[in-house]
Design a protein that fits this description.
CATH superfamily of the largest domain: Bordetella uptake gene, domain 1
Number of strands: 11
Low-confidence stretches: 1-9, 11-44
Helix content: 40-55%
Largest sheet: 6 strands, mixed
Number of helices: 11
Strand order of the largest sheet: 2-1-3-10-4-11
Order of helices and strands: HEHEHEHEEHEHEHEHEEHHEH
Mean pLDDT: 88
Shape: globular
CATH class of the largest domain: Alpha Beta
Strand content: 15-25%
CATH architecture of the largest domain: 3-Layer(aba) Sandwich
Structural class: alpha/beta
CATH topology of the largest domain: D-Maltodextrin-Binding Protein, domain 2
Length: 340
């Protein structure tokens, strides 16, 4: 009788042990499955963007070089994004009108801005109550050089001769620019500061610079390369220096300040910005799309015709570049007495 009881107890123990093991394995399996379910739940949904037209704000008037480059880029980006990109000109206040509209736009990826060096000049001089970092700055597309140009019959054939004359004759050289506080004005100011010379700065507006140089109103101009290139090629003007990191591929005989040992790079850059707070997934899509657009054969052809150097920078690199350029521009404005 005792043997039967002992056998029954052992049998019951085995059954209970098996039940415990089954429950443990099931519980363990449930725990292992849980991370999988959490992962699936946490997986970000793919952003459906864009699903409609995108407004492309341009801080310049219609018909100019910057406007035409922006429209060409927008046309190239349309092919990649699969939605219409509508160029909208918003000139005025040194770019301030466009940047204000962009800042106030909804951060949903359906309003983008064709930025330029004006995102630094107009913010530093106080045309708007915010700085360049009020936006998510996505990428730089490229830049245009801003050389110092003089008439073909000017007595200076090199930049060194030009600077030597300026040192010996302070205030004798009148140098034209687009306007007080513009990138071309500040480039000349930085040259003054770097070399210890004194120019008379003459704000002429974009359209009057080259005619004023050829007509003798000023002795020199700081100007975007495309605006004076035809006169240089026609033998009416000559370029003395290029304040860029590298020599221009077309005018490769013109030296840069960098190669002469001066850390002075002032370029008229252009890129893409969106309102602050635009989702990172949309920013990634736009960065990729505009990178591909900058490689589009039609855009590349127009860029070459306009003297625009395609030199793409992604978001991280562009932000560092903007910080460096902003520091230089703020320094130039203080030196010129434009800001405190």
């Amino acid at each position: 009788m005792n043997n039967k009881r002992n056998m029954f107890v052992r049998f019951l123990f085995v059954v209970l042990f098996c039940m415990v093991m089954v429950v443990s394995v099931a519980f363990a399996g449930g725990e292992k499955a849980s991370p999988g379910r959490e992962k699936e739940g946490e997986k970000a949904e793919k952003v459906e963007y864009p699903t409609r037209e995108i407004n492309f704000l341009i801080p310049f008037g219609a018909g100019g070089s910057a406007d035409l480059m922006g429209r060409a880029l927008a046309s190239a980006a349309e092919k990649i994004l699969g939605q219409p990109i509508i160029p909208i000109n918003k000139p005025g206040a040194g770019g301030g009108i466009m940047y204000t509209a962009l800042k106030e736009a909804k951060p949903d990826g359906y309003t983008v801005g064709w930025n330029s060096s004006s995102i630094l000049t107009t913010t530093n001089i106080g045309n708007v109550p915010f700085k360049y970092d009020a936006f998510d700055n996505i990428c730089r597309i490229g830049f245009t050089g801003m050389p110092i140009a003089v008439r073909a019959d000017a007595p200076w054939n090199t930049f060194e001769e030009f600077i030597e004359y300026a040192k010996n004759n302070p205030g004798k050289i009148k140098i034209g620019n687009a306007g007080t506080g513009s990138a071309t004005h500040l480039t000349a100011v930085m040259i003054e500061k770097e070399f210890g010379v004194k120019f008379v700065h003459v704000p002429l507006g974009a359209k009057r610079r080259v005619p004023s140089l050829l007509g003798g109103e000023v002795e020199a101009i700081c100007v975007p390369l495309p605006e004076v290139a035809p006169q240089v090629q026609a033998g009416q003007a000559k370029l003395l220096i290029m304040p860029s990191a590298n020599r221009d591929p077309v005018f490769s005989d013109v030296p840069t300040l960098v190669e002469k040992g001066h850390d002075l790079v002032m370029e008229l850059f252009r890129g893409i910005s969106v309102p602050k707070g635009t989702p990172s997934e949309i920013i990634d899509i736009l960065e990729n799309a505009f990178k591909k657009a900058s490689e589009d054969p039609d855009f590349v052809k127009i860029a070459k015709q306009k003297g625009f150097n395609i030199s793409f920078m992604g978001r991280e690199e562009f932000e560092k570049y903007l910080a460096e350029q902003d520091k230089k521009i703020a320094e130039a404005m203080r030196f010129a007495g434009l800001v405190k």
